[in-house]
Task: structure prediction
Amino acid sequence: MKATEITEGIYRLGINLESDQLFEGMWPMPDGISINSYVIKGEKTAIIDLTEDVDDKPVQFERELASIALQARDVDYLIINHMEPDHTSWLPAFYAKNPDLQIYISEKGAAVLKAFCGIDRNVHIVTTGDTLDLGKGKILTFYEAPNLHWPETMFTFEQSSGILFTCDAFGSYGAITDAVFDDQLSSEQHDFFMREALRYYSNIIGGLSMFVSKAIELVQDLEIKMVAPSHGIVWRENPGEIIEAYARFARYMTGPAEPEVTILWSSMYGNTQKVVNAMVKGVRSEGLPVHLHRVPHDHVSFILASAWKSAGLILGMPTYEYRMFPPMAWALDMFGRKKVWNKKVLRFGSFGWSGGAQRELDTLTEKMKWTFVEPVEWQGRPDDAILARAEAQAVALARQIKGDFAG
Ligand code: FEO
Result:
């Protein structure tokens, strides 16, 4: 792929990680993910964020540089918005080709740069409001945006073009093939990137949502004409759309989220499974959408995305040796780590000789600000009375959720 000129003198370079890899070693990417870098040519040349040293990606990256008549040694400045290795693991090799490279980074980033790349020479620490003039009217301004997604992260704004370079923030899963900009997407592709932005957010950024709102406030007075993240598409036609989406995703943590219910359920011998349909029926009878996931069959990456967006959760799990069914415990532990907070929740499940799942669930979720509807529990097989009670409790949950949106 060649570099794409996104406006006069500013280029996007990008590689795609493949769909058979796991992002951060744990998140599935059925449609890959792009890692974007940006070149800004003034009298001096800067690169914002680099790329990952995996497979032949550096070779691809150098080809893209060559497509705009650049080699590593031609680059004057590297701006590091974020030090995570998907954006920097190729830096030591790049630096070896260009030892005069001047690096601009936040103070916390400088420490991480030394730890990960062993580089502490030609490092310039910047804070919010600092600028770097590249000449020919290209001026970069830096904004510290901590915890998006590591403590050292920052945004870079190019004044003449109004482009905000945000690295992980406003990013999404999904490889970039032909379309680079939001206005080049079909409606299906647009829906895909919005859906994958939510999944990426819930997997990577969600637990840091309190910092998203602060970062958006920090740049709210800028005249932003494009949002250029280092994962996903460049938002040229409607940069406000992805900023507003991220603001909305952040609000989901404080609740209520959308008037929808995610049902995640697990079953050992089918007795808990027999009640799933009653739960679905109860929620749907109140007109709320349902997202169904079976644990451990569905990856928690996708379950997180549904749960993040849903005001209500229904958790189906049998009791297993006096505690929660282990695969469900694992999924809910991830909910805790990623701060799936402020939900209305109903649990159901069968037990063999003793309950205990609810007790462990209460302990696991005590800091997550969940409000529980009385659970539906039974020994062995569910009978008609249990099915009726399950549907009634699902209706009760749905009505509570609707109550939060009334008026
Ligand atoms: Fe794309 Fe937090 O790295």
